[in-house]
Design goal:
By secondary structure, the protein is of the alpha/beta class. It folds into two domains: 121 residues, Rossmann fold (3-Layer(aba) Sandwich), CATH 3.40.50.300; 84 residues. It has nine helices and five strands. Strands 2-3-4-1-5 form a five-stranded parallel β-sheet, with helices on both faces. The chain starts with a strand and ends in a 6-residue tail after the last helix. The relative contact order is 0.14.
Length: 216
């Protein structure tokens, strides 16, 4: 099963990527095909819709190789609906495709994020960091995990690009969600604060306080 999460505050970018994926995997098939269950942005997404998605995946494909579910704005899924979809993500039907769009990963539970391939569509996002830049921050983060609170604060104070570091920190822990599930919740909150223009240094210092410590 392909479970892909498309992240962008621009819905048009999400729609464009959805179309690209459909053309790639289901050439000649449009969104009205009976094998495709499509939820447009603005639709209610609660428990009833989660059950509808699960039921859709249990049916045999009519014409394609596997059933497809597309949710343009998965950020509107209620927490109950997200939890109801976990088993589907854990035991995916063969050849099925699930595409989720969201303005931010902050709107989805860490358990959902850990089970999806995350694709960030915006050039200003953490995915735009060069490999060399990201690798430098990863090395720093590995050191910070075993550093004292004072050392972490000193690092934040000396940072030249705190926004870039925040993106790298989020990306690093998203790739290690299963190892740090509780800290993932703190990262979601930090991303919300960042979008609300909360002082970036204050955000990072809070994260340094609550970030897990790994003993050497």
């Amino acid at each position: 099963m392909i479970a892909r999460l498309l992240i962008s505050p621009d819905l048009s970018k999400i729609k464009k990527e959805i179309n690209r994926i459909l053309v790639l995997h289901l050439p000649g098939v449009d969104v009205n095909h009976p094998d495709i269950l499509y939820f447009q942005a603005g639709e209610k997404l609660g428990i009833a819709e989660a059950r509808k998605i699960k039921g859709h995946f249990t049916l045999k494909p009519y014409q394609t190789e596997g059933k497809v579910v597309i949710i343009e704005d998965a950020g509107t899924l209620t927490p109950e609906a997200q939890n109801a979809l976990l088993k589907t993500l854990e035991e995916p039907p063969k050849e099925a495709i699930l595409i989720l769009g969201a303005g931010s990963d902050a709107y989805l539970l860490p358990t959902i994020l850990s089970r999806c391939e995350m694709v960030r569509l915006d050039p200003t996002d953490s995915a735009s960091l060069t490999n060399n830049t990201y690798e430098v921050y990863v090395k720093d983060l590995e050191k910070l995990l075993s550093s004292t609170i004072e050392q972490r604060f000193e690092y934040v104070e000396k940072l030249k690009n705190r926004e870039e570091f925040l993106h790298s920190l989020v990306e690093y822990f998203h790739q290690n969600l299963l190892n740090y599930p509780e800290f993932a919740k703190e990262l979601l909150q930090a991303e919300k604060w960042d979008k609300q223009n909360v002082n970036i240094r204050a955000i990072l210092e809070y994260l340094m306080l609550v970030m897990p410590r790994k003993e050497i």
